[in-house]
Protein 1
Amino acid sequence: MIYWPVRSRGDKGVLVQCLRDPRAVLSLGPSGWDLLIRQGRRANLLGKLAVLLSDSGLMALLPASPKAHLLSALKMAERQNSAIHWEVSRISEALRSIGVDIILLKGAAYVLAGLPSSRGRTFSDVDILVRKSEIVDVESALMIHGWQGSHHDEYDQRYYREWMHEIPPMLHVRRGTTIDVHHTILPETARIQVDTQALLDHPLPVEGFHNVFVLKPIDMVLHSATHLFHEGELDNGLRDLADLDSMLRHFGAEHSFWLGLIPRARELGLHRPLYYALVFSMRIFNTPCPKSIVAELKAISPPWLVRWLMDACYTRALRPNHASTHTRGAWLARKALYIRSHWIKMPMPLLVWHLLHKAIKTPSKESEFNTQNRKIDAQ
Amino acid sequence: MSPFVVRVRSDISELAEDIGRMYQDFPVLSPNSFADFHVEVSYERGIRRWVRPLARFYFDGRPSFIPLPVHQAFPMLEWGINWCVAAHSHSFLIVHAAVIERQGMAVVMPAPPGSGKSTLCAALINRGWRLLSDELALYDSKNKQLYGMARPVSLKNQSIPVIQAHTPAAEITLPVPDTTKGTVALLRPPSESVQQVKTPARPTWIVLPRYQADAEASLESLNKGKAFMLIAEQSFNYNVHGREGFEAVGDLVDSCECFEFTYSRLSDAERVFDDLLASQIKG
């Protein structure tokens, strides 16, 4: 059942091939390079590829034009890395007066924890986790320091605050940076109920700050896995899986990481996302994984029908969302995962209500234009 | 358009004609070559296709910008390509400026819109100067050279008849009215500029042009600090480069004589620029 489409679909998986083995670039002709750069750019993995190529000492051997794009992506990523440091220091400062501790999630956490997954990575926002009881104070402290709420529409407010696990993203008026404030890692309405309190206990302090923390390695992996396999829009799916691969390799050097991983996942109720993360990371990125863990996977796997469906969807959706990988199957897989993401985040009546609302409400021209612009900026 | 290759797809036949005319001196590469940017300008589907057709720009399949009336397809393609270059080519410090060259020495004209830099640029490239760019100065901080693309010059509003009168032989597209920048027309780059597009130029002067009706031409020295701020302000990716960007702008300004140039007549401009060149050669 397990196969990876690179073999059967030839050139279409060129990005994954090169991420798995950077030496693969040496056999690329001009059209191969053309596709690699386009897929890498679309998947937001060009910077990561540049890091791998430069670590393997291959940069000097590359043709000039694609190399310029790789170096350009790397430069952008380096810049964003230092910008994230600055942004976190501003957030830390803003929350100092109210004495709230924050936990950084995802990209910002990788950067501040100095993890290899931060190298070459680009960001669109900073995600932080705070206790639910503190969220009102956090929001007003951030507002005093220049962040403004978005999504003023009443429905959207309710959607975020009541049903989802965050307040609407806040935008800094001068810097234009975005912060997402979460109080749990999954929506309150989600099928899986996560013991957020357990995650908040004993996080690791970030050097140089007294109120900024990151999750412990195992929890960080579990959070990233949960996030990826609950996400409905997988534009950055392959990038997020690459993050997981990188973390598993990095943390996995310590044997204790593997020993604690599955028990902790069970404790938090996050064994299913962990299952998917391990299976797809191994399959797509060849992530090394101890035999004992592979043997235990069966015990945390979903029933065969679900497994088969998820397999069919994710093998198609965890690819660069680029024309070269667009097949009817991939389109269907993305749609199916989009619906699934809502399905597992909300009970049925709420889901129907939400989708109806989204379908009936046509976005105004203004907001469509802004979304377009934001997309352009994000690139 | 060295240093870049762009692959364009479109179902708008008028656009193909415009591209054919404006880019006639550029090489056409095989479909198997590496392209830096894959772009598309195509009709919007649906009923609008037949009523008042709109066209949209796509960057590698991803729709960008709002759709515009189809007669604006060519300017939209040009703006789209500018955006592609400015957003993805951080191996250069990219400055919103026109660049022209003579005898290996380049004039950089950074300027906010309305200062007449495109008009000045269009006039001078028809009088012995070589066109590098009318919009994007590409500065390589390693070899301290300026690169250009020799793409069509974008003329706006009054500058269209001005250039037509100045250089009757110039090939200019039909004016496109009602764009966000007013009426726009594109001027075909001189063949010699296109042939030499791969040759970089040494930054020698920074000139801040200012068109002022009926003014006598005046070339005033511009303080280097002001020039620095101007270049940094007009740079698309100065902040992406961090400290290196700061140093690159510093190097660029250091290697140049900086001026503020007020003018109303293109003939004055030609004379002043020729004098600049002469003084540099003598000096």
Note: Chain A touches chain B at residues 29-31, 33-34, 37-38, 41-42, 63, 65-66, 68-69, 71-72, 75-76, 78-79, 82, 322-323, 368-369, 372, 375-376, 379 (CB under 8 Å).
Protein 2
Amino acid sequence: MQRIGVFVCHCGTNIAATVDVAQVAETLGKEPGVVLATDYPYMCSQSGQDMIENAIREQKLTGVVICSCSPRMHEATFRKTVARAGLNPYLLEIANVREQCSWVHKDREEATQKAIILGRAAIAKVTLNAPLVAGESPVVKRALVIGGGIAGIQTALDIADAGFEVDIVEKEATIGGKMAQLDKTFPTLDCAACILTPKMVDAAQHEKINILSYSEVEAVGGFVGSFRVKIRRKARYVDETKCTGCGLCTEKCPQKAVPNPFNLGLDTRRAIAIPFAQAVPKVAYIDPNYCTMLKTGKCGVCSKVCTVGAIDYKQQDTLEEREYGAIVAATGYRPISLEKYGEYAYGQSPDVVTSLELERLMNAAGPTGGTLLRPSDRTHPKTIVFVQCVGSRCEEDGRGKPYCSKICCMYTAKHAMLIREKYPDTEVYVFYIDVRTPGKNFDEFYRRAVEEYGVHYITGQVGKIVPENGKLLVQGSDLLAGMQPKIAADLVVLAAAIEPDPSARSLATLLTASMDTNDFFTEAHPKLRPVESPTAGVFLSGACQGPKDIPETVAQAGAAAAKVIGLLSRDHIVCNPCVATPNEQMCNGCSSCEKVCPYGAITYADKEFRMPDRTTALRRVAQVNPAVCQGCGACTVACPSGAMDLLGFSNKQIMAEVDAICR
Amino acid sequence: MQVKEKAIELLSSGKVSRVLGWKQGEFCYDLTPAVFESAEEVERSFVFSPLAGANLAKYLIAESRKEGVVAAFLKPCDSYSVLQLCKEHRIRRENVYLVGVPCEGTVDPDLLRENAKGLTAVREAGGTLVCDTLYGEKRVDLSAVLLERCKVCKSKKIVVFDELLGENGEENPQSTRFAAVEEIENLTPEERYAFWQKELSRCIRCNACRNVCPACSCETCVFDNAKLGTDNKAPASRFEEQYFHIIRAFHVAGRCTDCGECSRVCPQKIPLHLLNRKFIRDMNTLYGQYQAGADEESLPPMLDFRMDDCEPSAARGGKQA
Amino acid sequence: MQVNGAWQPTIVAFCCNWCSYAGADLTGTNRLAYPANVKIIRIPCSCRLNPLFILRAFGRGADGVILCGCHPGDCHYTTGNYYARRRMTLLFSMLDFLGIERERTRVEWVSAAEGAKFAAVMNDFVRQITVLGENKRLEDFRCK
């Protein structure tokens, strides 16, 4: 038998001036199940709360309805009040008779009638309320960072500095990512390696950080607080614990014709290699696609020259399974393939390069030792044309990306400036749609390129680039001058759009983290939760969430780390008890609910059921993980049989409210 | 009789332990679904003809959960339902052996009886129904007595099978199955209301539509679900029957293959399939072509979205006043 | 609903907790008036609105039902209102197909900051339903 108490608040005159609170209490007191109905000037005051507490104890109330201000205001307050009196805090409903009644209606009679109806709806609902207990789940105090670029490194360092263990999983043989390939950084022109490599070393030496290079995430199970992650450690054919990084093997290896990925294939290296001088870990690895020993079984030079016996041709991939409380995706970006842009002659002439390739051509550790030389004949280019927005902001033709890649305007200004600085006899032209430089000191930087360094910025796109007699004939349009300039260039640099690293797509599936149409990870909220994925316990760092430059990436990396630290510093996570709950007897196992769940909270299990004819049958039924479910209720409507219901907002409760309002 | 022979072969070879097919019902024009467990049983009572209108898909939910493999004969329509149920993990595909049977349309028994008064027996001979009647033999062209769903057949393609008897057919994008929906859409709201009130007010809530519908295969229907508070033994409001049919159509939207069984079995001849077709048509126009049961992978429109979907204010059930 | 012998429309407004319910609260905080016919039911997200609830409301005597949720793209649960949008589009189209006035159902996106919009929407909706009159379209012939 229900024993419901109704408490009508005057809120001073806020409610009482427009609503006849005494009449509301009197009328609601006659509702079935209500054993007590009273009004009071301030329910939220200490004495008001004491009154509620006493009433619960004395009247042995089974449910409480408070007609007061919005539940968004005082629901939490009154839940605590109710709990203090020993009643489950979820056996409380609030009728919002201030914000949604007394404050919006002027007629006393009307407002009073509406307050009564809202009170009735709350009574009808509370009658069906079930005691709910917020679950707790433990937190494993270790974080996984996927991706070892500047985003991943910074996130890992920040988390580790707070005293938590971090594993960095990097698919390449070294951490460092794209930033390690850059020459200088805008807008300060400091050298990328000079600011990145100390951080790589910090990460390597940090006692809380464990770098798993040349590894990939293979499977993810579990949920926030206790993810179980399977990591594939790819065979590098070199014992990581023995290799000293002396580099002797990389000098003696007879297989010299391996395109060097670090220099984007602009030069070659050996089949066994250390990615670059400052690589972390500084350990060699063998590319099995080129190694003669691995392919034919004949060679073994590296093994012979290695003084510590680190070479192991029989090494196999291994799988490691570890537990983590939080996961950070920091998978970064890559420039798009320019295959479909035949008009720019990329691939036809070696002197048409991407901006990232130009970074290598200008880098002291690059294939030209830092002297800018054309790849075709290794001469100094005298005329250089930059083409902006190659694949950015162009969706129409199906080749490019609809978004702005954000970093191109600034790095092009940087390139142009560096070239004019170092080689003043070089003419530099930039074809652009518009120049976007919102950022601290960004516009000043761009203006310096134009005003101080005399870079020729031309508003317009390039239509065609034709390799001709060792030159590149660039046919563009100058929209401001209304001309069609033709420039005979020695070198053309394409600002290729950037896209999420392709590994992000499969990772998103493993993490059940959502992605947008461009395969960037989606934030939990675009403004208010920018570094969290909608999947609890999964955080986002760097360009995998959207194009961004280094300062933004580092800022976001720190923000993601702060969120992770906040999570890991708790021993338990208290879960929202208003979660979806399936009725297994009614579940069809059709997977509709799973498909609309934004959090991946729903899985299926085959369970045995007793059938009416006394046989048992195996049926596929939905299971909700209450630690992951956020309680939106999308699944409850997708479910045709009504097997999925939402605690705290159950079908029956909402229909009871409807009935009370419409009666 | 290719189908019957195949049933005998499957059972006697031990390939399957049961066969789902059709047998003679109460009347000569009535074929009813049946499970056969032996070749002798098939020999004795298995019947297949254009009168075998019943979709066998739904029976496979229970049958595929029993011991041993069950064979089922699928007309193109039925195959869509089966694939849809496989997609929803309702049919255990590994426990069924599916034999595709091409279809030239199924007979509307009422139309047949109008064309052959005093019908006592009927057999098919190459597109013609040879009817014995109290007034002598009468020959009726199959095309003259087809069910509405067969006149506007959407596809003769069998989308899932282990074995085919004869040639597989093709989808029919030219089908005019939405014409009747459009006709209602072209009425004024008052006329539409009058039409549906007249139709739905005949409902006796026998639940035949629900019981036959392969998409309506819930373990417990919401309308029988006491826990949900939506169950009703007797109508609680003047709106009960409409309520039932709207929700039923909504629950099968994106899952309904348009097999037309609901209208075929309705004893009150309510054109229930039009409700489903309205949803299908809306989903096709608003969210892109989608055929439930055509494959196992695609996401049905109700479980999917696009950021630039139209707003509900654009929803129109027909001509406005 | 009969008030003092005159018919007054009954309007059920389902509001998502994060945007529209807060928006309705803001309407109150700003003291912007709208008719008392509107009764709000709080749901966690617009995607929680089951068509069953709408039909139930109509079946029990509501004259209009409105759903308010976060603007598309702003859903607290990221995707909830996208699903709600499809469901309501199809359901409203079906109700219209059955000849139930299209104007009796509505979806509006109201953010937590749009108190004024909430009031404007409710004023407009109540006016519209008042013009339409009592909801009789859902009745069974045989009950007359």
Note: The first strand of chain B starts at residue 18 and ends at 24.
